[in-house]
Amino acid sequence: MAERQPPWASRLIALLERGLPPSLLEDHEMRRRALLIEGTAWLVVLACALTVPVIAATTQGLGRVTSLAADLGTLALTLVGPWLLRRRGTSAAAGHWITGCVFAGVVYAVSTTGAFASPYWILLAVVPFLAAQMAGRSAGHLWSAICLLGIGSLFAADHFTDVLPQFHDPANYATTTAIYGAMTILAVHGLSHLADLAKDEAIARAEAASVQLEHADLEIERARILAQQAVAASSAKSAFMATMSHELRTPLNAVIGYAEMLVEDAEAEGLHDMRDDLVKIVGASQHLLGLIDDVLDLSRVEAAKLDLRRDRFAAEELAREVTEALQPLARTRGNQLEVRAPPASIVACLDRGRLRQILINLVGNALKFTARGRVTVHVRGETVDLAHFVVFAVEDTGIGIRDGDHRRIFEPFTQVDSSPRRRYEGTGLGLALCKNLVEMMGGTIGVRSQFGHGSVFTVRLPAEAPGRYEPAAPDVAC
Questions:
Q1: Phi, psi of 455 (to 5 degrees)
Q2: Which pLDDT does position 6 carry in this prediction?
């Protein structure tokens, strides 16, 4: 586990990271090298700046000028390293550049202070270390070879030629060696410490990422368990509703049958008041039976146990059949109900009974929410990429739907007005059932509405049943 860093270390790392490309900070190793390049560059700059008074005090004449020029040139060229790091977005070029600046500075110092009599040539040993830390292992190998070649060149120049100048007084070697040795020790220690800080922070980030990953795994596992429980609960709910709906239909059908018989008896005996009450019982029982049928169908759809048939029929004839059946409701509400279809017949091969159920729901809703207006059922055919579709659009001039409620109305047991004092009764199952049935038949359903100006519900179905149909009766397959 990584040690906790002191605040100054975190601030130092944040300062060195400022301005670095995000690509260098995403990978831990690249980030460590980038921090070392930044730190080395500023240490070299600091060392060159501190060397200026030492050079001024220990040299004179041409030696002072050339030494100061070399020192300040190394300082300026080293600053190119951080620029390369940001420009290229990689540590290789910047690491090699800064290593080259350090190498050139050390070679110059050695060559002008007596070659192997110089107290500075041992600094060449630091160069491969810097290269390996900043640019990678292969860079360390390369600069080791370059340093060995440089030592060989210095040896040859020192023993076989007289080209190496002597700018520094050997009497000052003790002072300058102490100063440069202390600076080198501090620089190497600082870089090592910086590398450890970068490593510790990388470990800390990796541990934090590991903890977050563990938490994410736990959340995923918890979500998976909850999903399984939800699926089990939904299956149990669907099974329960299907069973209860089926069991409720039997006694309710008996109630309707006996009530209709009592209506006939009351008419025969002239009991008109009783007959009116019995008619209300029959109507309420049939309404309740319709609600139970919707619940049963919705449960079957959710449980994927609803079979679809294949029937060949004319779409406009089905629309007219639905409108004729609902004409009494239209007259009760003072509405005009009509069908608009093209002259040519539109043939569909779908589940006629389920499509009739969808249209009855949509047209019934349009009539319920429209008073003294118009409800029109549009029927048309469409062809898209050689695929044929039949489209039913139920248009009304009723109260319309608010913009925020367009999607909610297709959710089970959802109504636009769910207050206890709502004006329009209903369970909110009709549109949810329509949506499920349409999608089972491979189609889509949508609504376009303006509040206060009416709505248009559009059902778009393939004219031919999709391959996943399982006909309930093979003899009606088309």
A1: -140, 160
A2: 61
Token readout for 26 is 């995403």
Whether residue 368 contacts residue 424, with contact meaning beta carbons closer than 8 Å, is answered with: yes
Same domain? 206 vs 295: no
H/E stretch holding 177 reads helix 173-269
| Strand pairing category for 374-384 and 387-396 | antiparallel
| CA distance to 46, 239, 277, 390, per residue, from 298 (Å) | 79, 11, 32, 24
- Alpha-carbon distance of 40 to 139, in angstroms, equals 16
Q: Are residues 173 and 298 in the same domain?
A: no
224 lies in some domain: no
pLDDT confidence tier of residue 380, bands split at 50, 70 and 90: very high
How much of the chain exceeds pLDDT 90, in percent? 12
Q: How far is CA 149 from CA 63, 99, 127, 129, 153, in A?
A: 26, 15, 13, 16, 6
> Does one domain contain both 257 and 337?
no
Placement of tokens 């409620």 in the chain: 405
pTM, two decimal places: 0.45
* Enclosing domain of residue 263: 231-302
Q: By C-alpha distance, which of 303, 314, 285 is closest to 241?
A: 303
Domain boundary among 218, 245, 271: 218
The two tokens of residue 30 are: 């690249």
Q: pLDDT by residue (tens digit) across 388-439?
A: 899 999 999 998 888 777 677 877 655 554 443 444 455 567 788 888 888 8
* Cα 7 from chain centroid (whole Å): 35
Cβ neighbours of 271 (radius 10 Å)? 15
Token pair, residue 189, equals 């220690």
SS3 316: helix
> Cβ contacts of residue 336 below 8 Å, gap of 6+?
330, 373, 374, 375
Mean pLDDT (the chain) is 78
- The number of domains in the chain is 3
Cβ partners under 8 Å of residue 229, min gap 6: none
Provide the terminal-to-terminal Cα distance of the chain, rounded to the nearest Å: 72
Nearest to 448 by CA among 406, 397, 412, 408: 406
Q: Is the dihedral of CA 286, 292, 298, 301 positive or negative?
A: negative
Question: Is residue 206 located within the same domain as residue 245?
Answer: no
Angstrom distance (rounded) from CA 166 to CA 355: 105
Residue type present at position 326: L
